[in-house]
Amino acid sequence: MTRPKLDPTALEEALEKLEGWELAEDGASIQKRFVFADFSEAFAFMTRAALAAEKLNHHPDWSNVYKTVDVVLSTHDADGLTELDLKLAAAMNRFARI
Ligand SMILES: C[C@H](O)[C@H](O)[C@H]1CNC2=NC(N)=NC(=O)C2=N1
């Protein structure tokens, strides 16, 4: 099911509450760099995030180098940002704090 794109005001408000997330240069995705204590912590985060992504049927574009995970979220089906990106971003912030 494709969700509607967020309007710019709703997006701005949501981003204020999502610590560390910012609008990417393309304006159609949000991004955050997570830096962990070591690779093991980074990979544990990715495992949790991957399970949450599967549950939401909404998947991150991400890369991992050692203890750093760079994440870009967008809704490819909608060519932009939807509620699903905010949900996954919030879940990732929770997992990064465990
Ligand atoms: C067919 C399947 O439901 C879709 O391709 C889903 C899968 N995961 C997805 N993930 C993301 N980030 N955006 C999508 O549009 C998307 N679509």
Description:
By secondary structure, the chain is α+β, with helices and mostly antiparallel strands. The chain has one domain (8-97): Gyrase A, domain 2 (2-Layer Sandwich), CATH 3.30.1360. The protein contains three helices and four strands; from the N terminus they run αββαββα. The chain has a four-stranded antiparallel sheet with strand order 1-2-4-3, covered by helices on one side. β3 and β4 form a beta hairpin. α2 (39-56) runs antiparallel to α3 (83-97). The longest helix is centred in the middle third of the chain and has 18 residues, at 39-56. The mean pLDDT is 97. Ligand H2B binds next to loops. This is Putative pterin-4-alpha-carbinolamine dehydratase. One of its GO terms (molecular function) is 4-alpha-hydroxytetrahydrobiopterin dehydratase activity. Keywords: Lyase. It catalyses: (4aS,6R)-4a-hydroxy-L-erythro-5,6,7,8-tetrahydrobiopterin = (6R)-L-erythro-6,7-dihydrobiopterin + H2O. Belongs to the pterin-4-alpha-carbinolamine dehydratase family.
Summarize the model shown.
By secondary structure, the protein is an alpha+beta fold. The protein is about 45% helix and about 20% strand. The model has no long low-confidence stretch (mean pLDDT about 95).
Topology readout:
Blueprint: H1 8-17, E1 22-23, E2 30-35, H2 39-56, E3 61-65, E4 68-73, H3 83-97
Antiparallel strand pairs: 1-2, 2-4, 3-4
Helix pairs in contact: 2-3
Bound molecules: ligand H2B.
The ligand C[C@H](O)[C@H](O)[C@H]1CNC2=NC(N)=NC(=O)C2=N1 binds at residues 57-59, 75-77.
Which CATH C-level class is it? Alpha Beta
Radius of gyration, CA atoms, in whole angstroms: 13 Å
CATH structural fold name: Gyrase A, domain 2
Shape: globular
Total number of domains: 1
Spans where pLDDT lies below 50 across 5 or more residues: none
H/E topology pattern: HEEHEEH
Total helical segments: 3
**Quick one: how many beta strands?**
4
Q: Order of strands in the sheet with the most strands?
A: 1-2-4-3
Coarse structural class: alpha+beta
EC number: 4.2.1.96
Keywords: Lyase
Catalytic activity: (4aS,6R)-4a-hydroxy-L-erythro-5,6,7,8-tetrahydrobiopterin = (6R)-L-erythro-6,7-dihydrobiopterin + H2O
Enzyme class: lyase
